[in-house]
Amino acid sequence: MSTGRIIDGKAVAASIRGELAERIAELKAQGRRVPGLTTILVGDDAASKVYVGRKQREAKEAGMVSEAEELPGDVTQEELIGVVREHCERPDIDGVLVQLPLPEGLDEAAVIDAIDPRKDVDGLHPINQGALFTGREGPRPCTPLSCMTLVESTGVDLTGLHAVVVGRSVLVGKPVAMLLLERHATVTICHSRTRDLAAMVGSADVLIAAVGRPEMIKGEWVKPGAIVIDVGINRVDGKLIGDVEFEAARRRAAHITPVPGGVGPMTVATLLRNTYDSCLASQASGAPSPSPS
Ligand code: GUN
Questions:
Q1: What stretch(es) of the chain map to CATH 3.40.50.10860?
Q2: Is 99 a catalytic residue?
């Protein structure tokens, strides 16, 4: 039996990082400012620490300025917002990312609102989410954009195809639906109360699984020849498992992302690309450069 081609997120991400590193080296050679990224981690969630560590390391490797703020879990809302604002005001910083989820007691929406929309390389500020919904330019959220880059890597034109998104989160489900719509797909968003999810999945030419429940989507539901993008990263008995039953789905899909090695590695590369774009936009707008040290 034929099996679907695996979409290699690691390879696509490496090629994006390589290209960015070259472009940043060119900026440097021209005596121009290189992009700067600040990551803000609050509390001691182990998974968040790993993700933030990766963002810092890859930013440095690409030649960016990489700043890290680590704040205790009992930081006050005002202190956290103060740190966010301080980094947004720095002329050498183009992107400020607050790692989510925040510890209980902190108001995530208020913290995101405090980010300067021009430095919101996560694309989560309501102004940028609004830009996405109204088809205006702006940074797009990293995970949804990563899904789109992987879909595009298959070379399949989405025009008129049925794309089914399972999950309606602000981080992934809703924005990826908008991006698919921009590519002229017919889009359905499913969620925990959708009736007959199997039939919905079975009609998907493109399936984006972003529910956060291990192997909830059964391989036998997948439409033969579909593109399957699995956003799920579920830790089960020390192993990472996606939202899709991989082996069974692979027997039906034309293209499928693995977990790990699919969407995961792409999200950081996309964040770096958003930071680079923000840096170029800042330089084009004539924003002040930091004084030479
Ligand atoms: N935590 C999980 N995904 C994300 C993301 O895309 N951005 C931020 N800031 N935190 C996350």
A1: 32-117
A2: yes
Catalytic hit among 99, 174, 205, 243: 99
Ligand 1 site residues, Cβ closer than 6 angstroms: 97-100, 122, 142-143, 171
Write the pLDDT tens digit of every residue in 191-200.
999 999 999 9
Question: Taking the CB of residue 78, how many other CB atoms lie within 10 A of it?
Answer: 7
Helices (H), the chain: 9-29, 46-61, 77-88, 108-113, 126-133, 142-152, 173-182, 197-202, 246-250, 263-284
Query: 30 C-alpha to center of ligand 1: Å?
Result: 33
Question: What is the mean predicted confidence (pLDDT) over 266-286?
Answer: 97
Question: Over the stretch 115-165, which tens digit does the pLDDT of each residue have?
Answer: 999 999 999 999 999 999 999 999 999 999 999 999 999 999 999 999 999
Q: Is the pTM of this model over 0.85?
A: yes
Let me know: does 107 contact 80? Beta carbons within 8 Å: no
The CATH topology of domain 32-117 is Rossmann fold (3.40.50)
**Ligand 1 pocket test, candidate residues 115, 122, 273, most atoms within 8 A of CB:** 122
Q: Name the pairing type of β-strands 95-98 and 65-71.
A: unpaired
Please name the fold of domain 142-265: Rossmann fold (3.40.50)
* Residue 287 CA, ligand 1 centroid: distance in Å: 27
Report the share of the chain in percent with pLDDT over 70.
98
How far apart (Å, rounded) are the C-alpha atoms in residues 197 and 232? 17
Q: Is 122 a catalytic residue?
A: yes
Catalytic member of 94, 119, 120, 122: 122
**Mean pLDDT along residues 8-33:** 98
